[in-house]
Amino acid sequence: MTTLLQRWRSRWGRGTAPAAGALDDARWIVADVESGGLDPRRDPLLAIAAVGVHFAPVQGERGGRRPRIVLGDRFELLLRPSGAPSASPDKANILVHGIGIGAQRAGLDPAEALQAWESYIGRSPLVGFHSAFDRTLIERAGRDALGRAPDNPWLDLEHLAAVLHREPRQRSLDDWLAHHGITCLARHQASADALATAQLLLKLWPALRQRCDGRFSTVLDLAAGHRFLPLRH
Description:
Pfam families: RNase_T (PF00929). By secondary structure, this protein is of the alpha/beta class.
């Protein structure tokens, strides 16, 4: 783990608080987390994984750009829960994500891990599926460990998929992966889920470009339209 942390620091910085500034709209970070339970306001953050989606201009298309997943731009760390390990861990949850008590104890100190996360994301916008869960866990862990939380905006890909497909029902990630023919090699494993979510973003991109210019701010506005789908809530 120390070697991994040194690699993140050498590539993305020393883990200091990120500087304020404009968003890096040429690089979106697709993220996924694993936790010690289903309550993001209470349960510990156990793992963060992410992969970068980079954008390049489309030749001959004014303002157009094409996303691609960059596997060399990825992040994955386990965190050691603060405090003593639970005397009665959520065994069912451990079976889902596979991060047992031994792996949790071998994880990084939360402050070190979250500093590395801040350095990695920089000013890139963030993308997740049901991202409120990921966002709440990461921001709460950051405030607990560092006294701060990144203010990078999040896009919920579930909202975006619902709008683009005019789907009023809440669909799972498995539903959308199956719909688009995407195979996830290890569901409920953070790095595999992040990669599958990034693949879903690319599948949604052609339909998205028919509705907006593809800038993160306009994609957020488009995704917000999920609230107006009939029977959504």
